[in-house]
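User: Sorry, what's this?
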Amino acid sequence: MNRFRLPYCMTVEEGIFERVDEVISEFIPGVGMQKAIIVTEENLKNIFGKCLDEISRDFKNSEIFLVNKSSYDDAVDLGKYICMNDIQVVIGFGGGMVLDMAKFAAFISKTKYICLPTTLSNDSLASPFAVLGTDNGARKTFGCKIPSCIIVDVDVIMGTPESQLKSGIGDTISKYTALYDWKYGCSKGDGKLDDFAYMISEMALNSVVYHENKSLKSKSFIMALTEALVMGGLSMEIAGSSRPSSGSEHLFCHSLEEYHPEIKISHGMAVAMGSIAASIFQGRDDMKVINILKSYDIDYNPQSYGITKGIFIDAWQRAESTRKNRITILNDTVLDSEWLSEIYDRMSN
């Protein structure tokens, strides 16, 4: 049985970054008096300088660490610095790159980790995994721990580009095919299904699929997307693996990243696009995925992201090899070029 932990708190409110210390102190008494480090990036420091200074003062004049690149070596170096300087709290302030760096550094230094996301582009804000750069520009997923606290400022998220919110929607929608692949893999002897984790991940999917207000900048939707992404992360913590949120559609994304790094597409968009083709491989109605994407005005045309037919075919044919120990529908699907070409044309029209 997998042992899992949950955050002490998750708060989603307007203007809450102005009183981060008050919120956390309700759940972790005395945390404001502990030595802390705020991990962020220069661009965010320029935008939220006043806010970061205030958080720094609230946490005993904590120092600010600027991330240049999110690599495994850099995260280990940061973890070493945290240990050597007796830092007790790591605060991640930013998007996926910053949060993964802070999360992993907090994990290896055995310190408290507080997550302050400035965007909602994927479910990494609450997941027990960090994606970091390795040799030759490749990226690898490393196990770590979920945050002690997750605090989301609705006002900050309202100011983020819609493309980032659409990426978060795409990552959530990809659970449609990921959950199917999880069940499929279990039926083939690849692990055991955790019904509770499955239910939490399905709830995350449904909260976005059936949300009445499809306006990306509405406060009700931002709260719903936050909850969906957090539920996605928690489902992985409960399952002890990424299976509740990652199936063949994610293997397609990994294949693009590994074999076609020239393609600049967000993680959420890549897995959403992958879910269309994956649903076809699974013998399900791909129009369900397409209609959901359309309802949020999300462009799923591969050509819009510079993905040619040749790249699309190659990425799918190599997808299974990106994680050979994971059974998905791809293990029993013959991905011939003609069929993939037809799927590409269908998605491009």
About this structure: The chain has a mean pLDDT of 94. The beta strands are 9-13, 36-40, 63-66, 89-94, 112-117, 129-133, 139-143, 149-153. The longest strand covers residues 89-94. The longest helix spans residues 219-239.
